[in-house]
Amino acid sequence: MSPSSEQIARPPVDALVTAGAEAELLVLGSKAFTGVGGFLAGSVALATVAHLIRPAVLVRADETAESEREPVEAGAAPDRGPYREVVVGVDADHRCEKVLAFAYESAALRSAPMRLVYAWRPPGALGPGAEDLIGQEGAAQAVASLLRPWGEKYPTVEVRVQVENGRPADLLPHAARDACLLVVGRRIRPARLGTHTGPVTHAVLHRVRCPVSVVPHE
């Protein structure tokens, strides 16, 4: 299919949400902070992501093909190095099939490793102790169970699991600092609750430098 363009006389968010509903993937450009910051996600991008029912990816204005790949030796083509990790954040307590499907497929298409980040918070005590250890073991078992069918479907994807005590909004930007793509989910809320990007999505869109895919799910 050849590229095409169309000028639409509608408010940007309405036009983008309509286009996104009819597309497999909506790609949005985003301004970038100077220095080492993440996205400067404007009101149009945030409002669009909050209303979408299909996946979207936000790409920084200064992103290049070489940005997704590992450094290569001098003299080698910079766009031929292996892809960096695809990082995905999941919540084992909620259904996240669409999020994992998008992440696995993205990693498989790139022949890239995938890092799965699961942030767990022990109930009660904050310091080290038996409760923390039991909580971490339970979280690791939940993630292993979650990944088992996907490993059978995508046997060539190398998966690196990171189960860590902390807030997803803090752990994901750190895990994705050298990634080629970060994949996060956004729960589609009932209309009476309004539309939201969610705290984790909002945080990573402002703090992560690599492209960010937001996958809506029930």
What does this structure look like?
This protein has an eight-stranded mixed beta sheet, with helices on both faces. It is globular. The chain has a single domain (25-68, 81-217), classed as 3-Layer(aba) Sandwich (Rossmann fold), CATH 3.40.50. It is built from six helices and eight strands; from the N terminus they run H-E-E-H-E-E-H-E-H-E-H-E-H-E. With 218 residues, it is an alpha/beta fold. The longest helix has 24 residues, at 130-153. The protein is 34% helix and 21% strand.
Secondary structure topology:
Blueprint: H1 12-21, E1 26-32, E2 39-40, H2 43-51, E3 56-60, E4 86-89, H3 97-110, E5 114-120, H4 130-153, E6 159-165, H5 168-175, E7 181-187, H6 199-207, E8 212-217
Parallel strand pairs: 1-3, 4-5, 4-7, 5-6, 7-8
Antiparallel strand pairs: 1-2, 3-8
Quick synopsis:
The protein is an alpha/beta fold and 218 residues long. The protein has helices spanning 12-21, 43-51, 97-110, 130-153, 168-175, 199-207; strands at 26-32, 39-40, 56-60, 86-89, 114-120, 159-165, 181-187, 212-217. Helix content is 34%, strand content 21%.
